[in-house]
Automatic annotation (TrEMBL):
An example molecular function term from Gene Ontology annotations: ATP binding
Keywords, alphabetical: ATP-binding, DNA damage, DNA recombination, DNA repair, DNA-binding, Helicase, Hydrolase, Isomerase, Nucleotide-binding
Organism of origin: Paremcibacter congregatus
Catalytic class of the enzyme: isomerase
Membrane-spanning segments: none
Keyword Transit peptide set for record: no
Pfam families: DEAD, Helicase_C, RecG_dom3_C, RecG_wedge
Protein name as annotated: ATP-dependent DNA helicase RecG
Lineage: Bacteria, Pseudomonadati, Pseudomonadota, Alphaproteobacteria, Emcibacterales
């Protein structure tokens, strides 16, 4: 249960002064609906009205406060469009104060000639002359304290002005209370970090530009709080899984050795290392929760199979789940091929299997006559009953929800948690792995199987499309197959589809009927049919929106064209490129770009030309663009951070991880004083999902 002290933070923003339904809705779009969300909405800049430069010192346009003597008023004639000007000066220079549509007598009263006034507003330099239009403040010297020294500048949304936003957040800050300290006091002392409340206040009330930096003590403290909440939550889950008794699946090598003996290749060092890590987990008496990361083509499937065979060696069953029908069938095909000489029965089950075949398969499954079942979500269905399911491989695990994972682990034997191996071809930088998959142990396939030909990657401006088409015409005559990925127009499937259809028609005009189109709006069956035609060689060119699934294997495809490559994330480009270079022939990837806005866009495409290392690409992408944009947060399974910046404060994560482990080692139920405070932290950052496990034991 949420600690009472936090209740006011979780109130709706409409409870704040100046916030009605309309504003609350607008706020909800960019900040959030709760008072708490306002705390995390930090200023990006500030106006420093406290700095009082002499007029002669002002060299650029910015907001200042100056002390000036009012000189001449230059009022426009009635009906004239000229603005009202007031001249003023100090010892170092002169300035014009400008008013449009001004009421002369009001200005006369505010700025009496010959008197000293404090003027605050944005000064602009126009033809070497200082001007200030409609000052924010015009006050006597004794009214000085009416001018706020520093005003935070917040990121805004349409419909909410800077003043209103500042007022709303000011209102939220009124609700701040001291919270029990959850950080180690010696850490706070060492880093010179303030208390949580002081940190929130300081972050919203910068006194200098330095206070706005992510390296400022207040912001570092808040970021560390958030990372600690993240790591603590993951560690709680991890311990929860580890605590559950799992099956001890000891590899006998009986089947695995046969598999390895029959493979037409040797396992790479990375494959052997990963497999050893997996086998160690399987043999251990707790449930495995491991992530196998590896680029497309790095050879995850054979590792997964070898691991699945361990379950079979122990007389149990294994399952392998893929996010799509196509992928499930491909996995099935490759497992079937690899187990050809083994006494192991592999079967496949997808949503497409119905009626008698399905019924027969389920009977065999329940009887234990199927050793390894491959499939899609269909494997979670209620009536799918296993004889003795002990181990599950989940491919592209971020596509599956927590509930689905839960549904699956309920299918094992009572009292023993399932061993789970998650696989992903989405390379994630090390720092992010900790935040996204910190609850799992990770193995990396960072070594490509030998003999792969490098993919020749080129960047070409879109206006040379005709040349590209001619080049493809020549290539096709030699039997090459081509993937043609259409641009992401925007986050709109309708527009993406329109663009893909247009390109399809264009290519159809050039190449005739040997061009196919797949897109996200097609029924799975139609999609499969087109894919199958392409894989079978009935089509030369496959035009696709980005639905070309990770893992789809067409070794004859050796050309990948990606239109408007600059609109894709690097990791996405990398994965798309991974569709080619799978056969014996040399492959090419053509990145067609529209306009390359800045240096970053150029640098990004350059990385694609220079390396095929997915991990390196992911690190560079993070460096260039920031984690938020990396892949699209949701797609990649990365958590959202409210105040912490992965790019700039990511170095704190490892520290938070160690801290979280130590804390739970000492106080596994978070019962101590500090433990209670840490519970508050988990609720504060809404990472309290695991708290229930602490008490239920
Ligand atoms: P991933 O699932 O990681 O994208 P796959 O498991 O589909 O990769 O493997 C890609 C290809 O590489 C397959 O054709 C597979 O047979 C082959 N392969 C896997 N491991 C090796 C190896 N050690 N040496 C040579 N080829 C390998
Ligand atoms: Mg694969």
């Amino acid at each position: 249960m949420r600690p009472e002290i936090l209740y006011p933070f979780f109130a709706d923003t409409v409870s704040l002064p100046g916030v009605g339904g309309r504003i609350a809705t607008l706020l909800g779009k960019i900040v959030g609906r709760k008072v708490l969300d306002m705390f995390w909405h930090l200023p990006v800049d500030m106006i420093d009205r406290g700095a009082m430069p002499k007029l002669g010192e002002i060299t650029y346009d910015h907001v200042v406060t100056c002390e000036v003597t009012i000189d001449k008023h230059d009022a426009p004639l009635r009906g004239s469009r000229r603005p009202y000007r007031v001249w003023c000066h100090d010892a170092t220079g002169q300035m014009q104060i400008i008013f449009f549509h001004a009421k002369g007598d009001y200005i006369q009263r505010q700025l009496p000639e010959g008197e000293l006034r404090l003027i605050s507003g944005k000064v602009e330099i126009f033809n070497g002359q200082l001007q200030m239009t409609h000052p924010d403040y015009m006050l006597r010297q004794d009214q000085r304290d009416q001018i706020p020294k520093v005003e935070p500048i917040y990121p805004l949304t349409a419909g909410i002005s800077g003043k209103v936003m500042a007022k709303i957040i000011g209102g939220a800050l009124e609700r701040l209370v001291d919270l029990p300290e959850w950080q180690d006091t010696s850490l706070l002392a060492r880093e010179k970090w303030p208390s949580w409340r002081a940190a929130v206040e300081a972050a919203h009330r910068p006194e200098s530009q330095g206070d706005l930096l992510t390296s400022s003590p207040a912001r570092m403290r808040l970021a560390y709080d958030e990372f600690l909440a993240n790591q603590l939550a993951l560690e709680i889950m991890r311990r929860q899984v580890k605590k559950k008794k799992g099956r001890s699946l000891t590899p006998t090598g009986k089947l695995k050795d046969q598999l390895v003996a029959h493979l037409p290749y040797q396992l790479t060092g990375a494959q052997q290392r990963s497999l050893a890590e997996i086998e160690q987990d399987l043999a251990a008496p707790y449930a495995m929760m491991r992530l196998l990361q590896g680029d497309v083509g790095s050879g995850k499937t054979v590792v997964a199979l070898a691991a699945l065979l361990t379950a079979v060696e122990n007389g149990a069953q294994g399952a392998m789940i893929a996010p799509t029908e196509i992928l499930a069938r491909q996995h099935y095909d490759s497992l079937l091929e690899m187990t050809e000489n083994l006494n192991v029965r592999v079967a496949v089950l997808t949503g497409r299997d119905k009626g008698k075949t399905r019924a027969a398969l389920l009977t065999d499954l329940a009887a234990g006559e199927i050793d390894i079942l491959v499939g899609t979500h269909a494997l979670f269905q209620k009536d799918v009953i296993y004889h003795d399911l002990a181990f599950v491989v989940i491919d592209e695990q971020h596509r599956f929800g927590v509930e689905q994972r839960m549904a699956l682990s309920a299918k094992g034997r009572a009292g023993a948690a399932m061993d789970v191996l998650a696989m992903t071809a989405t390379p994630i930088p090390r720092t992010l792995t900790l935040t996204a998959y910190g609850d799992m142990d990770a193995s990396r396939l960072d070594e490509k199987p030998p003999g792969r030909k490098p993919i020749d990657t080129r960047t070409i401006p879109l206006n040379r499309l005709d040349e590209v088409v001619q080049g493809i015409r020549r290539a096709i005559t030699t039997g090459t197959r081509v993937f043609w990925i259409c641009p992401l127009v925007e986050e709109s499937e309708v527009l993406d589809l329109a663009a893909a259809k247009e390109r399809f028609r264009h290519l159809e005009q050039v190449f005739g009927t040997r061009v196919g189109l797949v897109h996200g709006k097609m029924k799975p069956k139609e999609k499969d049919q087109v894919m199958a035609k392409f894989a079978g060689g009935d089509l030369d060119i496959l035009v696709a929106t980005t639905v070309v699934e990770v893992g789809v294997n067409v070794p004859e495809a050796t050309i990948m064209v990606i239109e408007h490559a600059e609109r894709f994330g690097l990791s996405q480009l990398h994965q798309l490129r991974g569709r080619v270079g799978r056969g014996a022939d040399k492959s090419t990837c053509l990145l067609l770009y529209g306009t390359l806005g800045g240096e970053t866009a150029k640098a990004r495409l350059k990385i694609m030309r220079e390396t095929e290392d997915g991990f390196l690409i992911a690190e560079e992408d993070l460096r260039l663009r920031g984690a938020g944009e990396l892949l699209g947060t949701r797609q990649s399974g990365l958590p959202n951070f409210r105040v912490a910046s992965l790019e700039e404060q990511g170095s704190l994560i490892a520290m938070a991880r160690d801290d979280a482990r130590m804390i739970l080692e000492k106080d596994p139920e978070l019962k101590s004083g500090r433990g209670q405070a840490l519970r508050v932290l988990l609720y504060l950052f809404e990472r309290d999902e695991g708290v229930k496990y602490l008490t239920s034991g």
